[in-house]
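The following record pairs a protein chain with its ligand, heme C.
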Amino acid sequence: MIAVGQRAKAAVFGRVPRALAALALASLGLTPLCACESAKREEPKPASSPRLSSGLDREPLEALPETPPVDHATASLGRKLFHDKRLSSDGSTACASCHDLAKGGDDGLARSVGVGKRKGGINAPSVFNAALNFVQFWDGRAKTLEDQIDGPIAHPSEMNTTWNDVVAKLKRDTEYTKAFAERYPDGVTAANVRYSIAAFERTLLTHDAPFDRWLRGEQGALSPEQKEGYALFKGVGCIACHQGRNVGGNMFQRFGVLGDYFKDRGNVTEADYGRYNVTKDESDRFVFRVPSLRNVEHTAPYFHDGSAQTLPQAVQVMAKYQLGRKLSDTQIAEIVAFLKSLSGKVPELELRGIR
Ligand code: HEC
Ligand code: HEC
């Protein structure tokens, strides 16, 4: 089984302490490769380094950065498009249908349902903090938020449409033609729709989670149980993969490092091949982008296949297949308590209800 783990080579470390990550991975028998992919992508730095309250020099997790400066009018236009069902072939489905911002930014289903009530093949991740992930989608096939949008537009079980149709529909709406003309010299185009929605998505950072407040020095922001949970999260090795400011979202890893998850689950589908579907490299089979754990208490069911209904279940599966160990009920409860401290506030632009 460990041999399988050693082939999970696609570790790409972002802006987190390398030594710690390398140590944690080494304890799993994994070798981190270079930081090539994430290093190439320039990421905005947080306004100030968080003050640490743990007594350590540096924590392997970081508070969320400030929301980057985004043109408010463009983001508001993006918000309107995000909620507009005309972006689907039959007017039934908006981005928000599967990424409900009042419910954690996803749809609460194991697999999403789109146009024609057709079921997709994979679980919908949250759009909250997605801007911070080093690539988009479970298999990382889109590099940017703008590129990502072509996926749902064309997907037969999502919006099932074409850019020609979407642009034609939006052009028939004088409010849209006016709003686009005010911001873009070429008016309503696919590129401008993508740009506006992505601008909105960049505002979807969930600040002020108790854990971030604790990182910034507010001792009482975490309960003793949550602090225990964080110590365990680092101590048992979750931190080797879920790390940095998004508590994940900065590397690819195999699902099933120390156990064969897919054999035990059965019924393997193409969606389970993960990164392999993009690279066709055999060593990428069953490799996924490590998901962010921010707001994870609100995004059940879990995993790309939606197979875990609750957080305790998901944590037990992770312990078994990623770390090769069984955690006690108390340990699981502590880790879950810590994970709940990662829930932040729904962002301002969304709350203001600008349409
Ligand atoms: C029918 C449901 C559905 C609709 C409609 C939909 N999505 Fe998604 N979204 C998904 C699913 C499922 C995934 C994961 C697909 C994958 O990884 O292969 C996803 C992935 C994403 C991601 C990547 C997040 C990450 O962490 O990788 C973003 C961002 C996103 N969607 C934004 C949008 C936007 C913007 C729209 C509208 C243009 C939209 N979605 C429409 C279901 C949907
Ligand atoms: C070797 C890397 C690795 C380690 C170690 C690891 N994880 Fe994960 N984690 C992943 C990957 C990859 C996924 C996505 C699996 C999938 O659905 O395909 C994931 C998914 C999850 C999810 C589900 C998130 C969601 O939105 O569906 C949770 C919760 C989670 N991990 C928590 C933990 C905890 C707690 C630990 C420690 C006990 C841990 N992980 C250890 C790589 C890792």
